[in-house]
Amino acid sequence: MKKTTPRKRGEGARSAQLSRKTRETDISMKLVVDGTGDYHVDTGIPFFDHLLGAAFKHGFFDVQLKARGDLEVDLHHTVEDVGIVLGQAFRKALDGYKGVRRYGHGVVPMTETLTEVTVDLSNRPHFVFNAVLPVNKIGGFDLELVEEFLRAFGSNAQIDLHVNVRYGKNSHHLVESIFKALGRALDQASSAEPRVSGALSTKGVL
Questions:
Q1: Where are any strands of DSSP class E within the chain?
Q2: Cβ atoms of residues 100 and 120 within 8 Å
């Protein structure tokens, strides 16, 4: 049985480069899964940049991301489309999730908040979001877009994504802990597993 070779950070890095242009957004991205958390993000939405940076840093993903969208209309198009491109890039970089651990779980405490994110790189998208956010906006950023971004990312990455905020009061802590936990869960799930040839499934395929 042929086994995959474990990849060290920065060596033989799994990566993808994608761009997507519509009448509403223009997005380009380079993703290196086996990175160190080195990122440059510019979406034109400062708080969204902050959240994405938290996910990339704690997932040890190297990312170059530039997005331009019709922010004068709404932030929704840009946030959702970044989720689409990131999801597609993640799946492409991991070759349809062959030779990886597949499951990942990230738990992040942030002051008074505790958040859990669990993923299955299953090629079958499903999304669960359990979080109550006390305020609607932070720095002009509509917090309902957190859920929209995650849904777009999970659907396009074709993963099973569960977000559960166990408790918390500060909305900044709540949403930032979600992105940090997402990064940790994806890092674990995407780690190369040398004992697996192909897909980690009793069916032999995902």
A1: 15-21, 25-32, 39-42, 62-69, 103-110, 113-120, 126-130, 137-138, 141-142, 160-167
A2: no
- Domain ranges (residues) in the chain: 15-190
Calpha distance 85→60 (Å, rounded): 18
Question: Mind listing the pLDDT tens digit for each residue in 47-88?
Answer: 999 999 999 999 999 999 999 999 999 999 999 999 999 999
Would residue 119 be called left, alpha or beta, if left means φ above 0 and alpha means ψ between -120 and 50 degrees? beta
Residues whose CB falls within 8 Å of the CB of residue 178, separated by 6 or more in sequence, listed in order: 115, 117, 131, 146, 150, 163, 165
CATH class, range 15-190: alpha beta
Write down the pTM of the prediction: 0.91
Residue 93: CA count within 13 A, CB half-sphere: 30
**At a CB cut-off of 8 Å and minimum separation 6, what does 120 contact?**
102, 103, 159, 160, 189
